[in-house]
Design goal:
5-stranded mixed β-sheet, alpha/beta
Length: 367
Amino acid sequence: MEEEIIAFYFILKKRENEARNVRRRILASLRDTEDPFLLQEEIFSRFLRFPKSLCWDLIQELKPHDNYTRKSRIPLELRFISVLYFLSNGSYQSCIGNSHFAAMSQPSVSRNIKQICRMVVEHKHVEISFPNSADHYNSIKRGFHNKFAIKGVIGAIDCTHVAIISPPSSTAGVVPHEYMNRKGYCSINVEAICDEELIFRNVNARFPGSCHDAGIWTTSPVRIKLIREHVSGAFKWLLGDSGYPLEPWLLTPIPSPSSANEELFNTVHIKARNTIERAFGVLKSRFRCLSKERVLKYTHTNAAFIIYTCAIFHNILQKRRIFLSEETMLPEDSPPDGVGMNTPIQSTEHYSEGRRARQSCLNALIT
């Protein structure tokens, strides 16, 4: 009896392997006959967010860095398309593999997402660059001044939550409950800075959802850079909501305006700072895998690579002013200034100097 069970087991395994091989041959045949780049431009852009020419150029840029070495090698073009399809739609990996865009198995899609995202972040991270010269600073200042009539602004800062699954308790160095945010789901709290064109100048996806925005800012490399540059008396600042501390390089709204000029400052501040909310909305509209309803079912490390990749692709599209007519911004669900987590912060060592900087900005606004 035992011998019969063992023999039956091996027969089942053999049939499973045969079925798997048949599926591999079918998928390979579909890949050989289907070419996503033969799709109409409108359909290609709607599903993948990129025009065909720009997508092809990106693939050619990355091709010299492709180290994919599996025996059943899938062309980089199809692997890249499968990742774009996932980022744009946030579907399950098996659905991506069964689509006419890229016929492949679920494990192949999983490997593609990890490998392509890491390759993009490694070789295209320069698409997200914080100003590093006076000319670069002045260009962004002019942009904010021309749009919002506020001087000296080099960016708007805020955080947004990207939903992920709860990390397993067995993960070394990870405390799962730290990823539970105040809204009741697990997430990465992503800090970002953008300019007036909704181009991200800095993205930080290293912190769990329970971290407060101000706490992330405290250790931010951008803050360290601005502190160092402030010593030389630089006339530049970021705009943040009242959940951030008022500092000479980070201006927050006036909590209780007592004059028409202070009301004007708050109005202009809100309009200019709203660029970061709009940037988050456009990002999550383009790449639906980041929306709360499409939870990233990956480790926090792999999820961070996906977030960085989406931000890089967003910048590439913004810099080339490529927009889809059906794109709509997904609303951010942050509470308004002065509510809940955004209670004004005053007990910082830079508060007094920050008040003087904010007054200087106000004076420049009304002169």
